[in-house]
Write a structure and sequence with these properties.
Two copies of one chain form a homodimer. By secondary structure, chain A is of the alpha+beta class. Helix content of chain A is 56%, strand content 15%. Chain A has six helices and five strands, in the order E-E-H-H-E-H-H-E-E-H-H. In chain A, strands 3-5-4 form a three-stranded antiparallel beta sheet. In chain A, helix 3 packs across helix 6 and helix 5 packs across helix 6. The N and C termini of chain A lie far apart (44 Å). Mean pLDDT of chain A is 91; it is low at 1-5. The A-B interface holds A 1-3, 5, 8, 10-15, 17-20, 23, 81-83, 85-87, 89-90, 93-94, 96-100 and B 1-3, 5, 8, 10-15, 17-20, 23, 81-83, 85-87, 89-90, 93-94, 96-100. The first copy, chain A, binds a DNA duplex through residues 15, 19, 21, 35-37, 45-56, 67, 69-72, 117.
DNA sequence: TTAATATATCCGTGTAGGCGAATGTATTAT
DNA sequence: ATAATACATTCGCCTACACGGATATATTAA
């Protein structure tokens, strides 16, 4: 059953979005790349939990990461397919329904850590 | 962690879409309501499997059903929220990536069962 | 070297949900 | 009543993956 194209497995993508923590991460990354410590700070979750979800998102090709010294920066993968664009619109629309998503963004902005590893 | 609004649990919705069989069902329903026997026919899956997935979609409020004699007709739930509309656009976009989805629609059209319970 | 920091991975445990055969329940036809 | 049809639900089995504590790895600083 082939559902993969250009490194994008539709079923896996939807599965990735079916977890609140991953949804929060993706939503935060819409504002630009972030390092793991930023995410841990805003999400207020154990480091292993955040790291596990990031690994999941990496495997699903929804995010990419780059390493700079001690920090790993994560960013949204470029949305090339029409499908990927629609997925991003879904995440945006989720903000209307899940107040926490907007709260996260505000929490990031007011976070003193947001420039700790700039 | 509140993620529910107007009977729509975002996480559950994405989880519902993360299964190929359910994606196929939703895509078929985009063409209008269908009875279970139509779906079994096109999907070529055991009755219990199809029925279980339909139950899942019902619980997620993605579909509704009506009963007419011996037949149960399923239809897409009306997309009231912006989020729901975007979800439908995602399913549509999935057709570009999963050839089976278009094949299903054709298979339905040429199916002799497609008017067995009209 | 040694220590500290940032991140990834491993571990044991628990739950959600996949499968198809079998069974239960309406409904309609004879 | 009996049989056939359309569907839902139950069952036992199995895999994916959620969790957070513990540990491993890489980098940089002292």
């Amino acid at each position: 059953m082939k559902t993969k194209t250009q490194n994008l497995d539709i079923e896996k993508v939807f599965r990735a979005l079916s977890d609140l923590t991953r949804l929060r991460i993706l939503n935060l990354l819409r504002g630009g790349e972030l390092c793991v410590c930023d995410l841990i700070d805003v999400l207020d979750l154990p480091q292993s939990t955040v790291s596990r979800h990031l690994a999941y998102l990496r495997k699903t090709n929804l995010v990419t990461s780059r390493k700079e010294g001690l920090w790993h920066y994560y960013q949204l993968a470029p949305a090339e397919l029409k499908f990927s664009k629609k997925i991003m619109e879904c995440i945006e629309a989720s903000c209307d329904v899940i107040p926490l998503l907007d709260k996260d963004v505000q929490s990031l902005q007011s976070s003193s850590c947001s420039d700790c590893c700039g």
